[in-house]
Amino acid sequence: FAPWKTPLMVSAFARIAEPFAAHLAGIVVRVEEFADDETLDALGIDDAWGLSGLYHGRPMGEQSNWIPGELPPAITLYRQPLLAEWTETGVHLEDLVAHVVIHEVGHHFGLSDAQMAALEEDGAAG
Questions:
Q1: 34 and 81 in contact (C-beta within 8 Å)?
Q2: 3, 34, 72, 108: which could join 48 in a potential S-S bond, CB 3.0 to 4.6 Å?
Q3: How many CB atoms sit inside 10 A of residue 116's CB?
Q4: Is 29:77 a contact under the CB 8 Å cutoff?
Q5: What is this structure's pTM?
Q6: DSSP bridge partners of 53
Q7: Distant-in-sequence contacts of 69-74, Cβ < 8 A, 24+ apart
Q8: What mean pLDDT do residues 11-28 have?
């Protein structure tokens, strides 16, 4: 069983346009209930409900086959915070999951949170 191969995840990744989608083949995708304490501490987050997704790894431009022992890049979605946000906001669950996946894919391409927020603002304004 691959938890990321749910219809919601397949739909979220299908929204990513070429040529970007071609660079996602090596990304591991996981779904967990909540982020663990170590992850939350590393990010300075006090409440596990405040993290719905996370990119683990080096951005694509910094990756190298010559770094021994390094794990492949991964995206982790945190199920309970996503479900809570869905019920609190009324946003369609498929759209919410796609938003989080696309945000984490942005980190894979080296974009910061601020850069992604600016892109979202530009997209909303246009």
A1: yes
A2: 34
A3: 17
A4: yes
A5: 0.81
A6: 77
A7: 71/28, 72/26, 72/27, 72/28, 73/26, 73/27, 73/28, 73/108, 74/27, 74/28, 74/29, 74/30
A8: 82
